[in-house]
Specification:
The protein has 295 residues and is mainly alpha-helical. Helices cover 80% and strands 0% of the residues. It has three domains: 67 residues, no CATH class; 102 residues, Serine Threonine Protein Phosphatase 5, Tetratricopeptide repeat (Alpha Horseshoe), CATH 1.25.40; 87 residues, Serine Threonine Protein Phosphatase 5, Tetratricopeptide repeat. The longest helix is centred in the N-terminal third of the chain and has 37 residues.
């Protein structure tokens, strides 16, 4: 969860930086347009063209009044402005529809579940039960039933509800729901004493979000299923080869499996690590390899 939060934090910074790079050049362009507006010698058609280029056709109302322009002069710019207003209204409606979409309830559901707020979960489920698009809302409603059953310690009912989610959710549009549902299945399976099923659920969740592979590997290690753990770490390091901690964990598994070739592969992965971690990691891997060769 901390890793996911860190990725989201830096992703927000990156998006903000990209936005600023587009904002400042446009700001300079608009400032120059303001200067031309104040210069009576600047032809009105030139300013009107800059309005369209700078996406600020709303300024045509000011220019029309300030220079007392004829309707035919500003007709094209005014039409552009009306289209802009229409597009803004359409975009606003689309945003409002997105907020009312069933998937928007997922974050609330997670919050209420963490707070053990059964009443709020029931209210959210009722809201989804009257949603206009029942085909889309049904999997989210089933997920809410599962969360409520968990809070009521009705784990068999919770598992049944989560199975309904897997059967009806769209792999194209409901990937986040499926991921969260699989994590809940893993949790319930552990509580019911079925760690193998929990590991399978974590593997499926990892296919949707590779950040879960280390968790799957850790559970497999606890189950003494070293082969499963090796596969999970290998899947993770294929995408994130510079994670020195997971490389060392994988090497320790190869050590338990008496695989010198596996440890050597881990030494190759060390080349992807940061220089500050690479030397220390290579020393630790070298020690493991030496122990294997001596045994």
């Amino acid at each position: 969860q901390a890793e996911n939060l860190t990725h989201r934090f830096y992703d927000a910074i990156r998006r903000g930086a990209q936005f600023l790079r587009t904002l400042f050049p446009n700001l300079e362009y608009r400032l120059h347009t303001r200067q031309l507006e104040l210069d009576d010698t600047t032809p009105s058609p030139e300013i009107l063209e800059r309005y369209e280029q700078g996406d600020e056709t709303e300024r045509v109302l000011w220019l029309k009044t300030s220079r007392n322009l004829a309707e035919q002069v500003v007709a094209h710019a005014e039409a552009h402005y009306e289209r802009k207003i229409t597009d803004m209204i359409a975009a606003d409606r689309e945003r409002n529809q997105a907020r009312r979409a069933p998937k928007a309830s997922l974050r609330l559901a997670e919050m209420y579940f963490s707070q053990h707020n059964l009443v709020a979960l029931q209210a959210l489920e009722h809201a989804l039960s009257v949603h206009p698009d029942q085909a889309q809302a049904a999997p989210y409603g089933a997920y809410l039933k599962g969360l409520q059953a968990e809070l009521g310690h009705e784990l068999v009912n919770a598992m049944s509800a989560y199975e309904d989610v897997l059967n009806h959710a769209s792999t194209e549009h409901d990937t986040t729901l499926l991921e969260h549902c699989l994590l809940r299945i893993a949790s319930v399976s552990l509580t019911l004493g079925n760690p193998e099923q929990a590991n399978q659920a974590l593997d499926m969740a990892s296919a949707l979000n590779p950040g879960h592979w280390p968790l799957s590997a850790k559970l497999a290690t606890l189950r003494n299923d070293d082969t499963h753990a090796v596969e999970a770490y290998a899947n993770y390091l294929t995408l994130f080869p510079g994670d020195h901690q997971r490389i060392l964990m994988l090497a320790e598994l190869f050590n338990r499996l008496r695989s010198t070739e596996g440890v050597r592969q881990c030494m190759e992965l060390a080349n992807y690590c940061a220089p500050a971690e690479k030397t220390k990691l290579l020393n630790e891997l070298g020690t493991l390899l030496h122990q294997l060769n001596m045994s």
